[in-house]
């Protein structure tokens, strides 16, 4: 089969590799669509301690089952399925508590397990038994199904931030994830969502997702504008959905007393040491937290939201590339030329 293999940092090669073999407990999926995530780009550029090269990346995917082992009873050949990324081990204290995205082994597709930048991907016993594999309705395209994975991460993040009816929410970063946050925050009851973005073209692109106020931080003081939009008090929830250390610094100044501040966007290697004025956290009694990945339950909820039409995932897909053009696809994603970039193996 054909696969895009990251052989060393910044060197991804499309080549023929052996098609995975199915054992009694595994599934082979023909990959029909896979999105490019910011974490794929970080691994491509900087690596990850959970990724041993050479490896096939790609964790936002959907396809159809073409083979499965005799012990697999939840699925059948021909099922259209979507995959999430985080795979609970199913045995540790965190997995037993139902928070498998905090599993200390932290298995994930495209990390320890070969991912979906390939014609086929193997879903092993751990993934089949504990991981996020869910059927998608016939009226959902594979592309839409693939993007259940990032939407699941958004659901996890906003549950952790405990968005309530009437909350004001600031989203810093107008990429696909930030725009999903806008939509889900409103569904959860936020009555004012403020979007902050440095790039004017990106901000204009994001206006289709229905925030209540838009701030271009390269043209005006975003902190002052957020305070103006919130009666001088700050927002109930502030979420950073970008890889900028400066956004994390600004977030605590945008927050209302007792607000929830969510550092959702991961930072690049070498830039994760951020200086914060902890007196502001102290005196405002802020709740500062992170959010990482999602649970299988979030992935199912994401598919339900897409399937019901509540979230129109087609709006998030801007570019499509064949697997042979994976390096061009990564460059396009890195240059923020559109919304989500889809690779079609």
TrEMBL record:
PANTHER family named among the record's database cross-references: L-THREONINE 3-DEHYDROGENASE (PTHR43401:SF2)
Keyword Zinc among record annotations: yes
Protein origin, superkingdom: Bacteria
Protein name: Alcohol dehydrogenase
SMART domains: PKS_ER (SM00829)
Cofactor(s) required for function per UniProt: Zn(2+)
Gene3D superfamilies: Medium-chain alcohol dehydrogenases, catalytic domain (3.90.180.10), NAD(P)-binding Rossmann-like Domain (3.40.50.720)
Signal peptide start-end: none
Any one GO molecular function term: oxidoreductase activity
Family to which the UniProt record says this protein belongs: Belongs to the zinc-containing alcohol dehydrogenase family.
Segments forming domain Enoyl reductase (ER): 7-343
Keywords: Metal-binding, Oxidoreductase, Zinc
């Amino acid at each position: 089969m054909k696969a895009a293999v990251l052989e060393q940092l910044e060197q991804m090669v499309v080549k023929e590799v052996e098609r995975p073999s199915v054992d009694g407990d595994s599934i082979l999926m023909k990959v029909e669509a896979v999105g490019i995530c910011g974490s794929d780009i970080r691994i491509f550029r900087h690596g990850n301690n959970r990724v041993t090269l050479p490896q096939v990346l790609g964790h936002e995917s959907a396809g159809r089952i073409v083979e499965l082992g005799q012990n697999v009873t939840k699925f059948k050949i021909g099922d259209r399925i979507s995959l999430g990324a985080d795979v609970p081990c199913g045995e540790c204290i965190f997995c037993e508590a139902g928070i498998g995205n905090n599993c200390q082994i932290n298995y994930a597709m495209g990390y320890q397990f070969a991912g979906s930048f390939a014609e086929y991907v193997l879903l092993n016993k751990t993934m089949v038994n504990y991981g996020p594999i869910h059927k998608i309705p016939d009226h959902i395209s594979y592309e839409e199904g693939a993007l259940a994975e990032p939407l699941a991460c958004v659901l996890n993040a906003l549950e952790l931030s405990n968005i309530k009816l009437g909350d004001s929410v600031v989203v810093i970063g107008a990429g696909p994830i930030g725009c999903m946050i806008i939509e889900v925050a409103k569904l959860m009851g936020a009555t004012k969502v403020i979007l902050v973005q440095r790039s004017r073209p990106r901000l204009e692109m994001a206006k289709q997702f229905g925030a209540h106020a838009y701030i271009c931080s390269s043209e005006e003081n975003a902190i002052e504008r957020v305070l103006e939009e919130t009666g001088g008090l700050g927002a109930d929830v502030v979420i950073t959905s970008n890889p900028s250390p400066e956004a994390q610094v600004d977030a605590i100044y945008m927050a209302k007393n007792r607000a929830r501040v969510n550092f959702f966007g991961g930072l690049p290697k070498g830039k994760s040491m951020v200086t914060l004025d902890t007196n502001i956290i102290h005196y405002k009694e802020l709740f500062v937290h992170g959010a990482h990945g999602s649970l299988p339950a979030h992935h199912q909820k994401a598919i339900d939201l897409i399937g019901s039409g509540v979230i129109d995932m087609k709006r998030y897909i801007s570019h499509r590339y064949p697997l042979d053009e994976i390096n061009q696809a990564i460059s396009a994603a890195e240059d923020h030329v559109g919304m989500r970039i889809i690779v079609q193996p």
